Amino acid sequence: MSTDDNDDTRDAPAPAPANARRKGPPVSLKRAQEARRRFLRSVAAGVVVVGAGLAGYIPVASARSHRLRPPGALDEADFLASCIKCGQCVQVCPVQAIHLGDITEGFGIGVPIIAPRQQACDFSCDAGQCILACPTGALSYSKPAYMGTRKGARLSRLVVLKAKAKDPEPTLNVPERMGLARLARPEGCLALQGKGFQGPARGAAFTGHMRYVDVDRWKPIPVADHPYDRPLCDLCVTECPIEGAIRMEPLGGEGPARARPVVLEQCIGCGVCEMICPAEPAAIVVDARQTWGNEA
Amino acid sequence: MKGRFLEQLAIMLGRAPGRPAINDEALRIHEMKRLSKREFEAMKQHARDHRLVTNKWRNRRWAVLIAVNLLFLVSFWLDIQMLEGALTASRFVGFHLIDLNSALQVMLAHKHIIVNLFIGTATVFLLWAALGGRSFCSWVCPYHLVAELFEKLHLALAARKLVTDHEFHRGARTVFWLVFSALAVITGYTVFETLSPTGILSRALIYGPSLALGWVALLLVFEVVYSRRAWCRYICPIGLTYGMVGTLSPVRVLYTLDKCFHEGDCRKVCLVPHVLDMVIKGRAEAPQVPVGPDCTRCGLCVDTCPSGALKFDVKGLSKLL
What we know:
Low-confidence stretches of chain B: none
Distance between the termini of chain A: 75 Å
Largest sheet of chain A: 2 strands, antiparallel
Shape of chain B: globular
Structural class of chain A: alpha+beta
Strand content of chain A: 5-15%
Shape of chain A: elongated
Oligomer: heterodimer
Radius of gyration of chain B: 21 Å
Distance between the termini of chain B: 24 Å
Largest interface: A-B, 50 and 68 residues
C-alpha cells in the first residue's frame, strides 16, 4: 500500500512554474492545472444545482391557484414558504384526504394537497387535526394580522358542522375558506335533469371514505359501502358537512320535478360535493382558493 | 487553541488544511519515529499483521440510522405515534423536532417564526450540539446510507479503472449554503427543499415512492461515475449547518500521535479526508489532536485504524472517568 500521499516529509515543493509573479508557495504545473479544473468543475456544478433548484419555480408559477390545500392554509405563496414538508398533516387525517406534492410541483414538493374527487376533506376529525399537527403555522386557525386576507376569503361567520350541530360548540374554528364549490357542468347534473340516483355514489370500486353520523360519528367508512336511493339526486346537498353551505332550488315547469344545487356563502370549499357527485365527470367541483363574490 | 478553532472552521468552509505550528512534545514524537525507522517499520508490519478487521462502528451506525428511519415509517403505518412526521420536522412522543436546515429555509423564506417552530428548532440544536453536529449526517440521514452503498460501487469501478473520482472545490458547499439561504430570502420559497435528497428519501420512505426519487437516482449515478460522494462532500448545505452546530460538540474522534503509523488508511475511507490532515507524517501539532467539526463522526476511520490511533472521545468525560 502506498504511503506517498500520507507523508508530509516527502511532500516537498515541486519546481516553480514559469509564472513567477504568482504569490504564495510554488506549485507544480500539474497541481495548478488540477486546481484550475477543479475550480471550473465546481462553478459548473454550482450553476447546474442552483439552476435545478430554481427550475422548481416553473410549476409554481404556472399552477399557482390550482391546488386545493388543507383547511387553515395560508395564502399560496406564504403557504409554500412556511410549509416544512414533513407530512404531519397527512398522518393525522382520519380520511387520508391529504397527500404530498411530488417534484413535479417544484417548490411545492412535499407540500400537502387535497384532490377532492378522490378523497375530500369531510371534517371527520371535527376540529382540523391537520392544523393542530402543523409545526410551522403553515396551517393555522388564525393567521398573523400582517398577512392580510383576500376579499371574500373570510367566511361571514364560523361554519357549523352538521355532525356537531347538537354539541355545545358546533362551529369549526377555521375562519377562511379553502375554496368555493361551483356547478361547473350543469349538463351533467342529475337533479337538473330531474333524475334520481340509486346505488353507491361513485361505484363499488371507489376507495374514498366519509363519515356518516347515523352510522358512526367517529369512524369514517367507504363511500362504496353506503348506497343511496334518491328519487331526485341531492347528494351534494345532503352530504355536505356544513350547515347552510348549499341548497336545492326547485325549478318549476312541466314534466318531472327538477332542481338546481345553489352554493351559498357558508361554503368552505372542502370538496365533499365534488367527491360524492355521481355524475362522471363531476357536475359540481371546488375551485381552490376561490373567494366569495369573485366567482368567474 | 483559539487559533486552531478558527482554522478548523475555515477548513470546514473550504480552505485547504495548512501545516500547523507543532508543539515540542509532538516534535519529539515525530523525531522519535524517524530516529528508529527500522523498528518503526517492524512495528507497523506487526500492527498490520495483527489488525482486527472490524465494522463495529459502521454496524452500530447503520443500525441506528435504519432504526430511526424505520421508526418514522412504523409510527405512521402502525399508527403508534412515536415519531410522527418526516426528517424535516417531526414530533417524538409529542415533542417538536425540526431539522435545522429546513427550519432555516422556512424562517428565511417565510420571515415569521411561531412558537412550535422555535421550540422544535432549539431542541434539535441542543441535541446535535451535544451529539456532534454532523453526526446527523452519518447516523440519521437516509441519503448518507444510500450514498455509502453506492460509494462501494464507485470504488469497485475505480479499482478497475472504469471510473475516476473528480474532485470539486470544497468551498463550493459554503457557496451553496449562502446561495440557497439568499434564494430563500429573495424568492420567498424554500428552494433547497426541492432538491434535498434527505427530505425526498425520508418522505418517500414514509409516504410512498415519488418521481422525486428520479433526482436522487441521478445524484447517485453522478457519484458513481464521476465524483465520489459529491453531494455530501461538496454540495449539501445541511451538512454545513450541522457542521457549524457541531463545532463546540464534546463528541468527536481523537487522534493520538504516538500510536499512528501514518499509513493513511483512515483518509482513504473518510468522507471528509481534510479533517484527518493531522495523520499525515509530520503534521500533527500536538500528541493528541481532536478531529475538526466537518467530521461526521461516522467511525469508519476508527474501525479501519489498525493501531488504535483514532478513537471516539467525549471531551471532559474521558478525564472524568
